[in-house]
Amino acid sequence: MIDEKIILDDKSQEEFIQEMEKVKSSLPERIDANPENVEKGLAKLVLTLIELIRRLLEKQAIRRIEAGGLTDEEIEKMGETFMKLEKKMGELKKEFGLEDEDLNLNLGPLGDLM
Amino acid sequence: MSKYLYGIINWGKKIDISEKGIGGESVCNIPYQGIGAIVSELSPSQFKISKENVFIHEGVVEKLMEDFAVLPMRFGAILEEEKQIKMILKRYHQEFQDNLVKVENKVELGVRILWDSERIKNKIIDANEKIKNITLRVNKKSPGERYLLEKMGGELIERILNERADTLIARIHKRLERYADDSRLKRLATPKMVLSASYLVPREKIDQFKTEFQEIRKKYKKLAFLYSGAWPPYSFIETQIQIADDGKMK
User: What residues of chain A lie within 8 A of the CB of B114, using their CB?
Assistant: First the structure.
């Protein structure tokens, strides 16, 4: 047997378990396709893309605020829209039983999308 | 009969291996020009994604590592026919050989480090004028403005956090990589997990690596450390295998 060992402070054990469970498994999902799974798989993909676009738009808005040239009203309006978007995303995630960590794509050697 | 594939070894002849595979089946070597594919027979009902099977898979791979260089397959690599295996061995022969040389007598060691992300974030906020200004502005604003300003602050904090993580990782990695031939690093897999790393370490340097790890652990008292190993070199295989028609193998 290979010399197998774990070196870890007992007090950190719980914390490590918690964090490692958050890290998505890099194993590709091998699930048999059935109607329920297909729906969830599609929802996951679509919501991931929406989430990506939402974040990009938000970042763009922040850049514009930093650059100046936006009135308080314009900022307020954009902010309200993004707030609503974020809230809606939360509802959709809940509806499909998806967590934040689920909405990501692993691009192999390029790492994760988000 | 399907074949369950455990890994590729640097041995082109029959082998005798006492370790049993998935479903209690015998494990054997399918050779091709100096290398071989380690497989066992598999009937569809025998394969389940279960903890038990993962351990069996790992057991076979680790047993092989005692005597051979092994390119471990990911759990669940199943092929329909033996001729597909021969095809893979032929097609990827050179890559397999190169990878086998790369991992021979080496193991994978894992290092993970947690930091107190909340405490560090607060330190950053306290120390950074720009962020403090944003925080002040935020209170005066209406909800939409507040939302975006908070996001802006968050972004800034994240940027600085990433820089701090990079600095810390660079210092620690510099010490560990001395004993490794290769490494894979990931910064901030989660906000708390500042580093998740795999190191490809020659067997004869394992002790030195461990010692260095312990010294680093002693130095950075505010961080939490996890060392694990030795593992088969799962993270260091470069080859991606694909089968066109079946699609079951990756």
Answer: 12, 15-16, 19
pLDDT of residue A34: 66
**Which residues, 6+ apart, have CB-to-CB distance to B43 below 8 Å?**
B1, B2, B23
Mean pLDDT, rounded, for B48-73 = 93
Whole-number pLDDT of residue A38 = 76
Query: Under a CB-based contact definition with an 8 Å cutoff, are residues A87 and B155 in contact?
Result: no
What gap in Å lies between CA B37 and CA B19, rounded to an integer? 15
* H or E element, residue B229: strand B224-231
Of A3, A9, A20, the CB nearest to B206: A3
Each residue of A58-85: pLDDT tens digit?
Answer: 999 999 988 988 888 898 999 999 999 9
d(CA B156, CA A66): 12
B76-87 confidence digits (pLDDT tens):
889 988 899 999
How many residues are present in chain B?
250
Written as six digits, the tokens of B206 are: 């394992």
Q: Which of A62, A65, A72, A104 to mutate to test the interface with B (most CBs of B within 10 A)?
A: A62
User: How many Cβ atoms from other residues are within 10 Å of residue A114's Cβ?
Assistant: 12
- Residues in chain B within 8 Å Cβ distance of A9: 224-225
CA distance linking residue B166 with residue B152, whole number of Å = 21
The reported pLDDT for the residue numbered B246 is 45
Question: Does residue B238 contact residue B220 with C-beta atoms inside 8 Å?
Answer: no
